[in-house]
Amino acid sequence: MATATAVEAQRPEDETLRCWERDQAQLKADVTEQDTEEWQRDPSFAGLERVGGVDLSYVKGDDRSACASLVVLSYPDLEVLYEDCRMVVVRAPYVAGFLAFREAPFLVEAVQRLEEHQPGLRPQVLLVDGNGILHHRGFGIACHLGVLTGLPCIGVAKNLLQVDGLANDELHKEQIRDLEAGGDTFPLLSTSGRILGMALRSSAKSTKPVYISVGHKMSLQSAVRLVHSCCKYRVPEPIRQADIRSREYIRKHVEATLTALSQPVRVSEDTGSEQ
Q1: Residue 215 in contact with residue 28, Cβ under 8 Å?
Q2: Cα(190)–Cα(242) distance, rounded to whole angstroms?
Q3: Looking at the whole model, is its pTM more than 0.70?
Q4: Number of C-alpha atoms within 13 angstroms, CB side, residue 220?
Q5: Cβ contacts of residue 83 below 8 Å, gap of 6+?
Q6: Most buried residue, 38, 126, 132, 146, by CB count within 10 Å?
Q7: Residue 43: CB partners within 8 Å, gap ≥ 6?
Q8: Sheet arrangement for strand 125-129
Q9: Contact 33, 220 (CB under 8 A)
Q10: CB 205 within 8 A of CB 179
């Protein structure tokens, strides 16, 4: 665990945080929380053919070296059509409520590379491992990515962000226990009574819910239906595949290299030469 001094040293200057807050406020004005595409209004999402997922995985023991991953899956078959994994150097520190300023630039670049090299595979919607309007200032990384890419985006978090009256208390745990079947949900209500997102039991195989919130250009109702339809397991397949492939990329291209470099040099007893 880092010492308090080390954590303070990594924290941005107050002026940087104020700039980030201003940026969030300005971008938030462009968020659309309603359905904007014809396929979103269809009960079976007719017309939806490509669903994207993004993830950033870090090298073990190094919070600056990471693999940014974008995958595009066919819909409704959920077969991988495209993947882009790239090692990146993460320079911005992690600050609660400002994850997008640490990770979003690399994910936006991945979308831009796809649009440049294989525009026909551009996803029609992006699922993001994180929150949307369920956020300290109502503008999480799924909103950030949506506004910057222009894509409909959905935030899918594995843990409850405890903001605006939301708490992982006994009442919340009781609500989770009441989710009896895959597809069951309950709303995540703010102190004022506004629905910030939905808890979804995404699969009958998992009793732990995921937390869905609007990112951009999609209603919460449509977001919940789409996420559930993309789940073979607890985590929706686009995000799950992005995570699997980024971790595998790290294992093959980074950790294998580090292991090889750490191996001792063998010297032949007969010749004295290195083996």
Answers
A1: no
A2: 31
A3: yes
A4: 18
A5: 69, 70, 71, 72, 241, 245
A6: 132
A7: none
A8: 80-89, 65-74, 50-58, 125-129, 153-157, 210-216, 195-200, 185-189
A9: yes
A10: no
pLDDT along the chain (275 residues), means of 10: 41 85 96 98 97 96 95 98 97 93 97 97 98 96 98 98 95 96 96 96 94 98 98 97 97 72 54 42
pLDDT at position 69 is 98
- CA dist list (Å): 121 to 11, 72, 94, 140: 38, 7, 32, 26
Residue 123 and residue 49 in contact, taking contact as beta carbons nearer than 8 Å = no
Task: Report pLDDT for 262.
Answer: 58
Q: Which residues of 126-152 are buried (b: 16+ CB within 10 A; e: fewer)?
A: bbbbbbbbbbeebbbbbbbbbbbbebb
pLDDT value at position 253? 86
Q: Is 184 exposed, middle or buried (0-12, 13-18, 19+ CB in 10 A)?
A: middle
pLDDT, residue 273, reads 42
Q: Report residue 2 as tokens.
A: 């880092």
123 HSE (CA, 13 A, CB side): 32
Spatial contact of 246 and 57, defined as CB atoms under 8 Å apart: yes
